[in-house]
Design a protein that fits this description.
This protein has helices spanning 2-16, 18-23, 25-61, 67-75; strands at 101-102, 110-114, 117-122, 127-132. It has 133 residues and is an alpha+beta fold. Helix 1 (2-16) packs across helix 3. It is elongated and about 50 Å long. Residues 24-62 form the YMGG-like Gly-zipper domain.
Length: 133
């Protein structure tokens, strides 16, 4: 009985996460599956549904940008670096005081220079997508 409930919860999670699946099916599905399994172990059927939803979003959110975006950001002239106390980590938002530079070729991404590191950011959520070393 629990297996059916877990599978049903995972299916509902995937069905409701269609917009994330449209961006990158592989990472979103992997995230959802991993989250559902982890959630089921920790919290049973309800944990599977919540873990699947969290995994779906996380799997889609931390997918690296296309190589052409990374190349574009690397080729931009060096601007003043903003110094922030918090570490810049993929999946975490940059502070509001950090100015983002748009990428005209792909408005899904912006970039900035923080703590002397070039950072690619999702401009809608201000979430760090990639830190270029």
């Amino acid at each position: 009985m629990n297996t059916k409930l877990i599978l049903a919860s995972a299916f509902v999670t995937l069905a409701l996460g269609g917009s994330a699946l449209a961006d990158d099916a592989n990472s979103a599905v992997t995230g959802a599956a991993g989250g559902a399994v982890t959630g089921a172990i920790v919290g049973g059927p309800v944990g599977a549904a919540i873990g699947g939803a969290v995994g779906l979003v996380a799997g889609a959110a931390i997918d690296p940008p296309p190589e052409r975006i990374v190349t574009y950001v690397q080729q931009q002239p060096v601007q003043n670096s903003v110094v922030v106390k918090q570490p810049i980590v993929v999946g975490k938002p940059v502070p509001q005081e950090v100015v983002l530079m748009p990428i005209a070729e792909d408005p899904r991404y912006s970039y900035t220079v923080v703590n002397d590191q070039r950072v690619i950011v999702d401009p809608q959520t201000r979430t760090v997508v990639q830190v270029i070393q």
